[in-house]
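QA checklist item 7 of 12: single-chain prediction sanity check.
[x] sequence parsed
[x] length recorded as 304
[x] structure emitted
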Amino acid sequence: MPNLTVPPYFNLTMFVNIGPYRYPALAACLLLYVFIVCANWAVVLTICREKSLHEPMYIFVASLSFNALCGSTGFFPRFLLDLASDTHLISRAACYTQIYFIYTYATNEMTTLCVMAYDRYLAVCHPLHYHTRMTVKKAQTLAGLAWLLSVFILFTAIYMSAKLPLCGNKIQKVFCANWNVVKLSCVPTVVNNVVGMSITICTVFFPLAFVFYTYTRIINVTWRSSAKFKGRVFQSCLPHMSSFVIYSITVFCDIALSRYNIEEMNPFVAIILSLEFVLIPPLFNPLVYGMKLTDIRRNIFKML
């Protein structure tokens, strides 16, 4: 029977020796992180400063951008340090902290997009009652509940993982991931697997089904409406649908990759697939909402 241990460090094994390309890659990733921080802060500050943007839709956009800041800050500093280093050891406490920040970001992104779908559903399908059923206070409450849900369920999952006795310390990723830690356990993990699957269903599949339902209703309403109304709905819903589709694809890639034998894949492809959900949405969302929504774009340029 293997010795049950509590390794003080984890080893991130997916980092590839890229030789002289290390420092150009480090500089590129640093610039990417700076751009993500500046772009998302610009959106958050613009919405907070301008009273004309204190509306439900913009509150949700600000929540998405602030969530991107939290997720990026949980990932990039450690990732940049590993790029500059020859060893890729991370302490147990730092590993679980990184898991918490990255997957709280991932969960909150999906729940916030789900709430935004409900907001668009009310605006299109119940326009006469929109301002009574979706007030600024209610939007703030829904955004806060999305955050609280993410914080609570991730704390529960990580607490259960931290209690597991482990037989190894090798994590096949470039950042810490909860499922990869659970797979190192020397004892049965049935409870962890059930909890993990329940969390995935509650934070991925339920929101996915709800968004599909709301947009089915939106399409039914717009199909019978005038061309002008269809254009307004399309302009209003396109940024949200773009964010939702892109994020869903990136999450699916990460979930599929965690269940696949990475050793059979090209290491560069595996790294790209594992990084999509922490890179693309934080980069994509401020560009879409900042450029597509006229009020945000105008006020950003005004602030600059």
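[x] summary fact logged: The two ends are 63 Å apart (CA to CA).
[ ] second reviewer sign-off
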